[in-house]
């Protein structure tokens, strides 16, 4: 409940409904009708759903995001924790990381097409690149922020290296890693759409380009954009739900 006594979701729905109404009025009063009305977009989404294309393209995009994101997390987090823990390793690798980090994932598209062709592997590679460096830096920063008291306690108890990693290091860095994973997943969803628009033959990004080229179906273009936004919202909600896990909850402020 909000301070005014009205549930937060009611206010959110009201704001969205107001924006949709403004969208409808603006389109209707514009003689050229450059954009479709909300009803036309809804009809386009229903058309895609009935034809089976919507489910096919959503599954294709989620497949690429899942693999690219998981591969980045599985490699970047352990590597980042290792580099962050050992000062000499950070001195050696940090300059290289800072060189590659500012390069946009989209800049890798020509190389991705050259290496993997047009299809799933290109998109997965681009998502991997987009997530890898942000997760690497998040893991390095998380290690730096581990309180010295945690480290001292672990050493005083004589924990072995595997025990120290499992019982001290990972619980200490988990809250910050979850925030990094949430941000990286959002980046992954952005990258997959852009990659599919340029180097894809399926997926929601490809749907936008295909609908634009196949008779200027802007109702399908905007419909795909709406679906992208809704799925992005669900993905973010799923990542935020990890903050409620009992073993991680201590690292987040109480509402």
What would the keywords be for this entry?
about 260 residues, globular
Task: Tell me the layout of helices and strands.
Elements: H1 8-28, H2 38-51, H3 53-85, H4 87-100, H5 109-116, H6 120-144, H7 148-156, H8 161-199, H9 204-213, H10 218-241, H11 246-249
Helix pairs in contact: 2-10, 3-4, 3-6, 3-8, 3-9, 5-6, 6-8, 7-8, 8-9, 8-10, 9-10
Largest sheet: none
Rg value:
22 Å
Question: What's the total number of strands?
Answer: 0
The low-confidence runs, each spanning 5 or more residues with pLDDT under 50, are: none
Taking the alpha carbons of the first and last residues, their distance comes to 11 Å
- What class do helices, strands and sheet pairing give? mainly alpha
**Mean pLDDT reading:** 83
Q: What is the H/E order? A: HHHHHHHHHHH
* Count of DSSP-assigned helices: 11
- Approximately how much beta-strand content do the residues carry? under 5%
**Percent range for helical residues?**
over 70%
Could you say which overall geometry the principal axes of the C-alpha atoms support? globular
């Amino acid at each position: 409940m909000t301070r005014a006594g009205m549930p937060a979701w009611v206010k959110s729905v009201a704001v969205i409904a107001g924006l949709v109404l403004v969208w409808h009025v603006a389109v209707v009063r514009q003689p050229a009708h450059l954009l479709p009305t909300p009803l036309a977009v809804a009809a386009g989404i229903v058309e895609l759903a009935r034809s089976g294309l919507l489910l096919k393209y959503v599954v294709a995009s989620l497949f690429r995001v899942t693999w690219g994101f998981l591969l980045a997390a599985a490699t970047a987090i352990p590597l980042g924790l290792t580099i962050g823990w050992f000062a000499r390793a950070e001195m050696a690798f940090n300059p290289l990381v800072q060189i590659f980090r500012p390069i946009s994932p989209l800049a890798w598209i020509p190389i991705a097409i050259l290496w993997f062709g047009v299809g799933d592997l290109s998109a997965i590679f681009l998502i991997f690149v987009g997530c890898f460096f942000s997760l690497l830096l998040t893991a390095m920063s998380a290690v730096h922020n581990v309180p010295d008291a945690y480290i001292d306690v672990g050493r005083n108890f004589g924990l072995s290296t595997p025990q120290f990693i499992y019982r001290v290091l990972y619980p200490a860095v988990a809250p910050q890693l979850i925030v990094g994973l949430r941000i990286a997943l959002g980046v992954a969803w952005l990258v997959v759409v852009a990659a599919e628009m340029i180097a894809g033959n399926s997926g929601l990004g490809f749907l936008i380009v295909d609908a634009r080229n196949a008779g200027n179906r802007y109702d399908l273009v905007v419909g795909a954009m709406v679906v992208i936004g809704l799925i992005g919202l669900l993905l973010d909600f799923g990542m935020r739900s990890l903050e409620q896990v009992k073993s991680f909850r201590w690292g987040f402020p109480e509402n």
